[in-house]
């Protein structure tokens, strides 16, 4: 949205005598845009392979995350997909673990662990998640790698975009977008494969019989990947991601961040043409270590100048550190002009040991302690989890009734959930009243990973059961795996006389 600002400029040097008249004021229209036009960013590839330490770590995390993401749905476990979140059947398969909706507590624990991990990593090292593992960063890096392979390095891409459309340009652009689309929709297919058996899904796609919802979500996530990683790129980080906005609440003066040492680098000066580039020579001329090459800006995926200080656009990828270290080594100057450090260490010239002693501050120790406690509790809960769930529901149609032989009978319905991947035979035992017995079948079978409803009738002599409710226990035990057992309590009603 544009607004037009009208300005009036008064005439200067106007005469005051006789017939002379001041010239008419001129009207000037100034157009001001309320939105900043996007400036195309052409990130440069990493510089100096032997020194690109952080970029090697970045690509290592990209490979690790993508191998897990693309490979996990194809793994088989117990003749089924190893990791499958079957929403239709309301079952989550995670290797040997089968989770049901009743196990939502484990999902809650995982979400809490993820949130605390984000707080901890941000408090210690800033936006480590953004720079190394965020899907937006990962897929943007993959798409830019494809772009560099097809269109060339930074200078060639810039020159190609300035050229008018030609057969060569059309071919290069078409090839790039074709590969982008292939990667994007393979990503969408893989994502849906976590919720629908991926082999069946692949067969349906090849036979052109894919279901409507599956097709919709494949297209949706494919288009989102293509748009975010291919077109929006840094715009997602700058304007759409909320993390960039509230990260300052998790930063403090002792958070490790990518920082430019202005005291050492300023004033900037280019390298001398005829020697004199030693540190002592530059200091004698009143020059800092920064040679103002601009490579730190060229390699930045968000296009910022780290020399301007901490900015919310910085995703902490450390590409500028690798580029600056390469230049410093080539110039014979000390490395780490740009480095991971804290604002406190930079301001007070703390040693590395002093800096790390402040990084491990009470806030970080509290985060770590709480996080480790929750992880330990989750692991213990999963290890001690009994793969059998039993719900006892009283038959409301007949609370208590007198049957033959002068006995009182209560009827229940047991909802038995076998969460193992093998069929189980269960037996029922009861206790809590004298001569309490099971009048229905005491053994029953439940198929693997299935729920079955079982009718349970309990009887006791009417003359030995006082009117009112009595607490009784119901034990359900597997006959196949004797260590699988559950005890539930309920009430047994006596007859009123």
Taken as a percent bin, the fraction of beta residues is 15-25%
Percent of residues in helices:
40-55%
Shape: elongated
The termini sit apart by 85 Å
Instruction: Output mean pLDDT.
Output: 89
| Structure annotation, total helices | 17
**CATH structural class of the domain at 388-494:** Mainly Beta
- The stretches of 5 or more residues where confidence is low (pLDDT under 50) are 1-19
What about the largest sheet? 5 strands, antiparallel
CATH topology of the domain at 388-494: Immunoglobulin-like
Number of strands: 18
Question: Would you mind describing this structure in some detail?
Answer:
This protein has 497 residues and is an alpha+beta fold. Helix content is 41%, strand content 22%. Helix 4 (135-151) packs antiparallel against helix 6 and helix 4 (135-151) crosses helix 8 (212-232). It is elongated and about 115 Å long. The chain starts with a strand and ends with a strand. The model is unreliable at 1-19 (pLDDT under 50).
Gist of the model:
This protein has 497 residues and is α+β, with helices and mostly antiparallel strands.
